[in-house]
């Protein structure tokens, strides 16, 4: 009888754990900084906050910096933690190299309205892309760049929209794959709402691809990024950055790697993108 009650307690505890993960799973996946930070707060020059509208009259706060003549504009989709404001140093480095940058605000992040979900982040990404096109930036002057979870956003966007190239920083095969690796004792496949199956979309990409992953990444192992890379069609390039972790790729001459990969014809004057 004692053993029976022990089993009941274990099963009850497991059921509570499953319930908790099911009901709070998005809190375990998305870690937004809700503070709204302006470019001026970070000392960035020639960067403007842009109010991007999505369905439900929700406002997202993104940052935009125009490109130098002949340089492309990066549609930058950040990771699952922080906000656009916490990527100010990354933007500064990209801006210093002449790239235009549209640092996309996500629902629920950095003062932006809404809640982060796979559907809402994809709506934001499509709206950000459309905004760049409305600014007069042609698709072959747009580079899609995703970081960590943002790489999953970028992969899905690249499967649907045209761009010059796709750059993935510390990507994963899928959120489902990472969740199953982290919680092998849970029925993750049945529980997970936002699966972010990059593995199902990467072979639809019809543009040059570069994957950059730190060899010392303890959050998303480089093997996961390489598996995703393996599924993609040519042309593609993989850069394993020795010693880099998950959140510090920009400290390892990442901008130089990006600049070399893109190989745009900078002798042609495409004009500068607006920052207003």
CATH class: Alpha Beta
Number of strands: 10
CATH 4th-level superfamily: Alpha/Beta hydrolase fold, catalytic domain
Whole-angstrom Rg: 20 Å
Spell out the helices and strands N to C: HEEEEEHEHEHEHHEHEH
The outline comes out as: globular
Q: What is the CATH topology assignment?
A: Rossmann fold
Rounded mean pLDDT is 90
User: What percent strand?
Assistant: 15-25%
Give the strand line-up of the largest sheet.
Answer: 2-3-6-4-7-8-9-10
Structural class: alpha/beta
Helix content class: 25-40%
Notes on the structure:
The protein is an alpha/beta fold and 276 residues long. The protein has one domain: Alpha/Beta hydrolase fold, catalytic domain (Rossmann fold), CATH 3.40.50.1820. It is built from 8 helices and 10 strands. It has an 8-stranded mixed β-sheet, sandwiched between helices. The longest helix has 28 residues, at 2-29. The termini are far apart.
What keyword list fits this structure?
single chain, Rossmann fold, 276 residues, two-stranded parallel sheet, 10 strands, alpha/beta
Topology:
Blueprint: H1 2-29, E1 31-32, E2 48-54, E3 58-65, E4 73-77, E5 81-82, H2 88-96, E6 100-103, H3 118-134, E7 142-147, H4 149-160, E8 165-169, H5 175-182, H6 188-191, E9 209-214, H7 222-231, E10 236-241, H8 254-262
Parallel strand pairs: 1-5, 4-6, 4-7, 7-8, 8-9, 9-10
Antiparallel strand pairs: 2-3, 3-6
């Amino acid at each position: 009888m004692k053993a029976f009650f022990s089993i009941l307690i274990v099963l009850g505890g497991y059921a509570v754990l499953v319930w908790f993960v099911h009901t709070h799973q998005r809190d375990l996946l998305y870690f937004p900084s809700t503070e709204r930070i302006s470019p001026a707060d970070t000392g960035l020059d020639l960067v403007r906050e842009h109010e991007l509208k999505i369905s439900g009259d929700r406002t997202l706060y993104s940052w935009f910096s125009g490109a130098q003549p002949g340089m492309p504009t990066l549609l930058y989709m950040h990771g699952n933690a922080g906000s656009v404001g916490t990527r100010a140093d990354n933007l500064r480095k990209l801006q210093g190299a002449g790239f235009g940058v549209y640092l996309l605000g996500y629902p629920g992040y950095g003062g932006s309205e809404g809640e982060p979900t796979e559907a809402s982040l994809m709506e934001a990404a499509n709206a950000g892309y459309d905004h760049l096109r409305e600014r007069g930036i042609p698709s072959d002057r747009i580079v899609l760049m995703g970081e960590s979870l943002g790489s999953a956003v970028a992969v899905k966007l690249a499967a649907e929209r045209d761009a010059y190239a796709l750059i993935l920083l510390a990507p994963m095969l899928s959120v489902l794959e990472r969740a199953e690796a982290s919680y092998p004792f849970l029925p993750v496949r049945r529980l997970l709402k936002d699966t972010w199956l990059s593995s199902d979309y990467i072979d639809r990409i019809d543009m040059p691809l570069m994957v950059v992953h730190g060899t010392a990444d303890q959050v998303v192992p480089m093997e996961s990024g390489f598996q995703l890379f393996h599924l993609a069609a040519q042309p593609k390039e993989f850069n394993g950055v020795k010693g880099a972790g998950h959140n510090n790729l920009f400290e390892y001459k990442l901008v130089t790697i990006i600049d070399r990969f893109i190989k745009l014809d900078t002798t042609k004057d495409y004009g500068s993108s607006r920052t207003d």
